[in-house]
Specification:
With about 450 residues, this protein is mainly alpha-helical. It contains 17 helices and no strands. The chain is about 80% helix and about 0% strand. Helix 4 packs antiparallel against helix 5.
């Protein structure tokens, strides 16, 4: 973010923040040494941190984006629409369980440690204990859902096979937030990079050997369990002050904040997974579910790529808000403008080339998917546009706008999906998702703009 505040007070605030960071953190272990910086960024540690750590996260996610797109094409071709529908449904179901049980801990970790490093030992120990307990509840919930929602057969079995992925992914993603909070993501990135590549290679080999959807889900689950184990080992090498511990006061604080943020996180999880789960039970057609899921997965992958860079900004944003830095107000508008500026032309291109490209890559069995690529890119824009405002609201402690916007968006999507499906066919599911995400974006941006105007008026 550009600096227009040249007052001595602003310079002192930034300098004192940098001094405190050096005292609190101390020298990083060699494995977490930051990449060499250069140029004018050396005088802007916040921007340099975002670019260094964010580029690593975004680079990893961009690689995952490319690798997973290739993998999705192979899965679609070799599994067929019905089995691909089962795969997508299992991933959506365990993703929803993980989202509901997360309490937004990853965001709280980056916010708490990014704002003050001396809390690190208590935050890490307490959030790890919370994640383990909540994961057990999530596993129980997924198992009950599998038995209640699905009869005996491959789809129910797929849900049970996905349970280890729920456990492993929950731990691995939380561990990643520790590295982001300490602005030292390089070591964890290498582990994630290798394991995502290994999943793609192993899954492709299994497909070529004739394995079905259950084998592919098992590989997916194994990769996340292994990443969780390796990430826990790496966390021990972070420059944490004191012994990692479960802190009762921190537990109370995190539960209080997480109870609010968790409502918003659960609604976002439903916006992501709900269209696939709802479509499965409204249409009863796994083939249609698989095709719509493939289009929605394109949007989710695009969102994750942008989210990686923005997640790295949270510790810096936390310090900026804590110090009253006026530049924090500009973060939300910049993110929204960039997201919209990329999504509009990208969506138009997707609408033009989607049908022939999908027909060439996957075949006529997935004809519906071609028409979903453009809308999926527009949908990704609606997902990403309000992220800056949402992060700024969380850091400032304004959680209720996020809860209200996410809940109304999720409710609108759920209510409109059956109607849109009846009126427009499979593309109606994407339209309903887009309306839900769009409503959420409009409400969050509106609330953020109103807060920014009020803040400027006070200044």
């Amino acid at each position: 973010m550009p600096c227009h505040d040249t007052s001595p007070g602003a310079a002192c605030r930034l300098a004192s923040a940098a001094d405190r960071r050096r005292v609190e953190v101390g020298p990083d272990p060699a494995a977490f040494a930051p990449a060499p910086g250069g140029g004018n960024l050396s005088t802007r540690p916040g921007i340099r941190s975002i670019l260094q750590n964010g580029s690593l996260l975004a680079g990893r996610t961009a690689f995952e984006f490319a690798a997973r797109l290739v993998y999705l094409v192979l899965l679609a071709r070799y599994l067929g629409p019905d089995a691909y529908g089962a795969w997508s449904y299992a991933l959506a179901a365990y993703g929803l369980a993980l989202g509901i049980a997360s309490l937004g801990l990853e965001t709280l970790v980056a916010s708490h440690i990014g704002g003050s490093r001396h809390r690190g030992a208590a935050v890490i120990g307490t959030t790890a204990a919370l994640r383990l307990g909540l994961s057990v509840l999530a596993v129980a919930g997924l198992a009950v859902f599998a038995v209640a929602a699905e009869g005996p057969g491959e789809v129910r079995t797929a849900l049970f096979v996905a349970i280890p992925a729920l456990l492993g992914r929950g731990i691995a993603v939380l561990a990643q937030s520790y590295f982001v909070a300490y602005e030292a993501v390089s070591a964890q990135i290498r582990v994630s990079f290798v394991l995502r590549l290994a999943e793609v290679v192993a899954g492709t080999a299994f497909l070529l050997l004739g394995s079905g959807v259950l084998g592919v889900i098992a590989i997916h689950a194994a990769s996340w369990v292994l990443e969780a184990l390796l990430s826990v080992r790496l966390v021990r090498r972070l420059p944490v002050e004191g012994a990692v511990r479960v802190d009762r006061e921190m537990m109370t604080r995190l539960l209080k904040e997480g109870a609010q943020l968790g409502l918003a996180t659960a609604c976002v999880a439903w916006l992501l997974s709900g269209p696939v789960i709802q479509l499965r039970h409204v249409s009863g057609d796994l083939a249609v579910t698989g095709q719509v899921a493939l289009g929605l997965q394109v949007a989710a992958i695009l969102m994750a790529t942008a989210q990686a860079l923005m997640f790295a900004a949270l510790p810096v944003l936390s310090r900026a808000v804590a110090e009253g830095d006026a530049r924090a107000v500009r973060y939300g508008p910049y993110v929204a403008l960039i997201a919209i500026g990329l999504a509009v032309p990208g969506g138009l291109i997707g609408m033009a080339i989607g049908p022939p490209v999908i027909g060439f890559l996957i075949g006529e069995a997935y004809a519906v998917v071609g028409g979903l690529i453009g809308p999926a890119i527009f949908l990704a824009g609606a997902m990403v546009a309000p992220m800056g405002y949402a992060q700024a609201a969380i850091v400032a402690g304004r959680i209720w706008p996020l809860i209200v916007a996410s809940a109304l968006g999720a409710g609108a999507m759920s209510a409109l999906l059956p109607l849109a499906l009846h009126a427009f066919g499979p593309v109606g599911a994407v339209i309903a998702a887009g309306l839900g995400w769009g409503l959420r974006a409009a409400l969050l941006i509106g609330a953020g703009v109103a807060f920014g105007l009020a803040a400027r008026h006070e200044i």
